[in-house]
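Thread: "does anyone have the structure for this chain?"

Original post by V.I.:
We have the sequence but no experimental structure in hand. Need at least a predicted one for the grant figures.
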Amino acid sequence: MTIPARRWLAALCVAVSAQAAPPAKPATADVPMTVAARQAWRDGLRDGRKAHHAKDFARAIEGFDRALAAFPDDPRALAERAWARFQAGDLAGAEADARRALARTSDRRLRGATLYNLGRIHEAQGKTDAARDAWQQSLAQRPSEAVRARLGQLAALGPLAARPFLGPFADADAVCAAIRASGAMGARQRCVREAVTSPIDQAFGGQARLVAAMEPVAEEDTPRPGPGAAYIEGGVDDTPGEATYHLTVATPAGTWLLTDVASRYNPGAFGISEDISFDGARAQTLRDGRVVWHLGVTVNRHDSDMGLNEVEDWTIQTALLCSTGPSGRPSCIGPLSTRVEATRESLGLDEPAEGAQGEHDFWKKASSLDLSLADTGELTIKIVQGKDMDAAMKALKGTHKIAFP
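Reply from O.Q.:
Generated one for you, tokens below.
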């Protein structure tokens, strides 16, 4: 479904994040690289990757150092040095490199991988909540079984921990700044002065709004330095690129923010599309008087390849459980994958001559979970369809005592 938009609401911003394709060649913002510097960058990356593959992490770091000496802002070299430093046991250096990389790229695959690595770093630091946040942000960039498995392992260790909102923030500028500071926006992304209308608006007594962020579509829309440069005008209905949605809740104390609730990606290419729907907000009152909001999100993805004569269709449903605990700070459990259906089948075109194309790999997969929250605050998760279920979804099975701080 296409999500309608409405004009800016006074206390909230919608940050819409569209991902730009990574540049084909490295270049600084103001000074182009010389031929010698470009070669040094390539040589450093090559040597660093070769050493990393050989598990010689000290030599890998040295190679990435040389690449970064030639191109200090290269997010890929920063991300790869972060992982090498992690493997070498330098957790502080690894975290610093990962955060620098995230601040310098809008490429969703690189951001997804770097956020996964940042979660591993936080996990090694004993920062379980920070690791969970990084992995949830990683999933918002692109699907990954490895990331889901890590989240599933965390869930299997005990109660599903609620992710607290950031804030409160006094105004929309502060909300936008917090989205960027959290790593949920790339360097070229901007907040948008639009709010998204959806059934989720009903949550938290009607004070919830969805937030999004996007790279300007046209060159003339690119913000210039100065007041208001953090924002672009326009909606997110059918805009090409990736929109990453966040959740805000307005209270008398200010606006609270939960980053990376969902995303959709439409590259503007023929045969590839993705749409998102926010399926509702249902309130449930527990025995102790707490109100828990059940929020649902569905993403439908279509990807056809005429050259291969194949088409893939995916439907992914996720759920969030949100409430406000004794601290007065809102928090949410999830997003939790509850249903995944996917098919790869023939596009229906005439097949090429025999031998001109490899064998097709057609398949159909389906997995689903049932979530039931008792009025005692115990969440029971049962497997409905499990034959094709990944490890992360299976790990959610069981009864969990949930808590909102």
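V.I.: this helps a lot. The CA atoms of residues 279 and 296 lie 5 Å apart.
O.Q.: and Confidence is low (pLDDT under 50) at residues 1-30, 223-229, 353-358.
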